[in-house]
Amino acid sequence: MPSPIPAVRTIKTYAVTPRPNLDAPRQLEMSAWDVPMLCAHHIQKGLLFKYPPDLSVEQIIERLRSSLEEALFHFYPLSGRLRVVTCEGGGVTCHVEVGIEGEGAEFVHAVADGIGIADVVAADGQDLPHFLKDFFPLDLALNFDGCTSPLLVIQLTELKDGIFIGCVFNHAIGDGTSFWHFFDAFAEISRCKAVGKEVVLSRPPVHDKWFIGGYGEPPIKLPYSSPEEIVVRVSPPPLRERMFHFSSKSLAKLKARANSECGKGTISTFQALSALMWRCITRARGFPPEQKTSCRLAIQNRARLQPPLSPNYFGNSIYASPTTTTAGELLNNNLGWAAWKAHEVVSNHTDSAIRDMVHKYMKNPIVYNLHMFDIHSIMMGSSPRFDMYGCDFGWGKALAARSGSANKFDGKVSAYPGWEGGGSVDLEVCLLPEYMSALERDEELLAVVSPPVKLGVMLGTSSK
Fold first, then answer.
1. What average pLDDT score do residues 203-231 get?
2. Which of 55, 97, 452, 455 has a CA 20 to 30 Å removed from the CA of 462?
3. 247-268 per-position pLDDT tens digit
4. d(CA 381, CA 416)
5. Under CATH, domain 8-230 is a member of which superfamily?
6. Any keyword S-adenosyl-L-methionine (predicted)?
């Protein structure tokens, strides 16, 4: 039987090389937050747009390619190559080489045959479509055969009635904050070019890496005999993926409930929402009461260090910090109890705690992989604070933010700002099929989740 024709066809791949940046060093060392991410899959996020009026696809491609060239000039680590090498005497080190031959990023032009905006958005209650993975051209961890593949790839995918701009971004180069900083600058440059305006970035990146003292000069030496030992391939089981929408009004009620139940008054909206998902997913999994379960929260270090790092610090500066209990204790107590445990994790993430974690890492450096995530837990990733819908390329607000297949596993929950703003949130939830079916029937979740914004409202064809 012949193989099925793929929904997404690659038309052409372009090499994009920025003009020389005389301020860029030839070699960039990686911090104690970057090195652990060597085996992580690339960050894969993208935005869906209506087809830009009065522009041909050739004009769109030309604007995006020239904007990417300018963006790479400022975000020069993304135009380099990551080199992981074995040291004399044993051990492995890594760094980014900015000035090597063939440096730059890739820009891919693709076409999604027969796929439209409505297919990408997916109707309320439907799983996210499997073809989304084809909107992102790279989805595997790195192969360490000398210098790696490009650290950044942009893919423009043509739809029947729209376009999707997908960005594949090496996780060892930056976290979600840095990813959306770059994406926003890329869009800002495109807007400037649309009106013939000089490009002056509103938020230039800060490339000075943060290192803790007492361990000699970088690079960090890893206890492996060869780069190949770092690579751990993970093939997750088939997952169901769904978006759940929470309006600002619904979240305000949830926050009030959590604070009332715990009697503290300091629970944030996201802590309450994280506690809700922890409880509901644990209930859906049907764990025995004695089963330990954790909720991991992705917490930024930038503003918590003293002195703080610049909010424009480019790189990784984040920890996935857990709070742990048993399934029985989690479900026998109320939402406020669970939210307070999440609150304590965030409150305890102080300058001294961050430095203690860095010291601990430097004494025993490792590389993370997905096998390290507890299958009985959930991981709250991304952030509704990322200004995803502020990434305007000159043709208006995006209709939806979506992701590829990378870094997904049972219990991964990714937060996005809601399209309508105002503090609304969308959660992308990945679960085993039987767990997702149970979650969709969970009464505590159903009492909080909201109907999504209708596609007609986003397209401007409906007032409700």
1. 91
2. 55
3. 999 999 999 999 999 998 899 9
4. 9
5. Chloramphenicol acetyltransferase-like domain (3.30.559.10)
6. no
